[in-house]
Amino acid sequence: MSAAQLLVVLDGTIVNIALPSAQRALGMSDAGRQWAITAYALAFGGLLLIGGRVSSALGHRRTFIIGLLGFAGASALGGAAGSPEMLFAARALQGVFAAGLAPAGLSLLTITFTEPRERGRAFGVFAAVGAAGSAIGLIAGGLLTEYVGWRWCLYINVPLALLAVLGATRVARDRPSRDGKGLDVPGALLSTAGFVAVVYAFNEAASLGWGSGKVLALLAAGTLLLATFVAVELRTPRPLLPMRILLHRARGGAFLAITLMFVAMFGFYLFMSYYTQTILGYSPVEAGLTLIINALATLLGSTLIAGRLHGRVSPAALILPGLLAAAAGILLLTRLTPQSTEVFGLYLVPALLLTGLGLGLVMPPTAGLATADMDWQNIGAASAAYNAGQQLGAALGTALFNTLAAGAAASYLAAHPQAAAAAGTVRGYTTALAAAAAVLLVAAIITAPLIVARRGRQRADDRKAEETTPVG
User: How far, in whole angstroms, is CA 50 from its chain's centroid?
Assistant: First the structure.
């Protein structure tokens, strides 16, 4: 399950590093190359809620295996692409299968591990792999592109997916939903169109700016479609996403916390990629390898701390310190100036450790809260909503902080005509990072009253989940 989660998250970033090489090889235009990234994001984010419902209807284990095989096939197709159109289609197909694979994997994890202590360890490992996936994607993308070729950034998924299929055959079968009711077609169409419009708007804002007419139109259309989706879901007898999943106090707090965490962290990853290469002069491989520190800290936080404390402390005792630790790490970087020395040891390493530790503390308890106390027919929808929050957060964070950094740099250079370009660039980065830290502090303030729970209440929820969740 964790290997599959790695595939889904890793493919959101691994192609970024390979894109310049792929562009030269396939003759992509500068305007069209973004579709190698956008096609995956749109298909994945737009179809997640449908994937969650399909997973419940077909059975999570069956959907999981189908998703893995489809993802492997789409990856092989992309690696063999002979034209930009073929690559874009393969990336979209990867997103389609990932939209079923991601919620099925989290659902399987929830129904397979029911004892509180082993569930804590399982969620810790699962979250560590997912949280580190973006960093691993950047590292792997740089290494594969430089030493093997850009096509292996896609081919590498095939053996990983097939190994995960072998592992999935050892997972107990679960019961598919057999209530006799079909898919909520209006809800499916509205949610897909709404999520696609919003995610596409975020992607376009990174290059066009938030004041662009195209971006504003997409945001308005997406907001209207999602509002209509909510209205439809409140009235349909078999909703694609039952609103009680989102309106549950603790679960809503978990969704909000993970969404805002991803907004801030993807702004941080954007900074790490740009700053290390444009200011410090790192190669793409060196820039990617720097993120190993973040990945190891995430592993430590999610497995040795959050995983072991699951069921012993309330989720808030992990989520709130995690948000604050990540905010502290990002705030440290706002003190950077063009004249800063010993940047790696004094700034980057502490920031990477704190942000990784924070992410590792936040992901396991939010994943647990997202699926806790759910009946087995709706666990796929809850898993899909959790993954959708991550996707929206990542897309918004990348676009928002790219725009903030560019705007702040331009303003600084306009006000200081004699300043070097590097000074404006650093000012832009630190401004965006300050906004990212503010997002995390706001997340802590808003989610605290939603997720604070007594220890006894958490244990009761775990016992109830054990009693109501069938396995096998």
Answer: 18
Look-up of token digits 């396991």: 364
CA-to-CA distance for 166 and 104, rounded, in angstroms?
16
Q: Cβ(307)–Cβ(364) under 8 Å?
A: yes
Q: What is the pLDDT of residues 335-381, one digit of tens each?
A: 998 888 889 999 999 999 999 999 999 999 998 888 877 776 778 88
Which tokens in the block code for residue 342? 């010993």
| C-alpha pair distances (Å), 472 with each of 112, 170, 177, 269 | 9, 11, 14, 40
Query: Which SS3 state, helix, strand or coil, does residue 310 take?
Result: strand
pLDDT digits (tens, 9 = 90+) for 307-344: 888 878 888 999 999 999 999 999 999 999 888 888 99
Mean pLDDT of 118-144: 79
Q: Any idea what DSSP says for residue 179? A: S
Burial of 167: CB neighbours in 10 Å, binned 0-12, 13-18, 19+: middle
Which amino acid would we find at residue 42?
Answer: L
Contact present, 352 and 330 (Cβ < 8 Å): no
Cα angle, residue 12 at apex, residues 7 and 14 outer, rounded to 5°: 80
Q: What are the helix (H) ranges across 291-378?
A: 292-299, 308-309, 316-333, 343, 349-371
Q: What tens digit of pLDDT does each residue of 52-82 get?
A: 888 888 888 999 999 999 999 999 999 999 9
pLDDT confidence band for 180 (50 / 70 / 90): very low
Phi then psi for 281, rounded to 5 degrees?
Answer: 80, 20
Q: How many CA atoms lie within 13 A of 97 on its CB side?
A: 25
Q: Would you state the structure tokens that stand for residue 298, as one six-digit string?
A: 């995430």
In whole angstroms, give the CA distance from residue 263 to residue 460. Answer: 32
**How far, in Å, are 104, 112, 396 from residue 380 at the CA level?**
6, 14, 24
Task: Name residue, tokens 């300050």.
Answer: 434
| CA gap 154, 19 in Å, rounded | 12
Taking the chain, what is the end-to-end CA distance rounded to the nearest angstrom?
Answer: 17
Query: pTM for this structure?
Result: 0.81
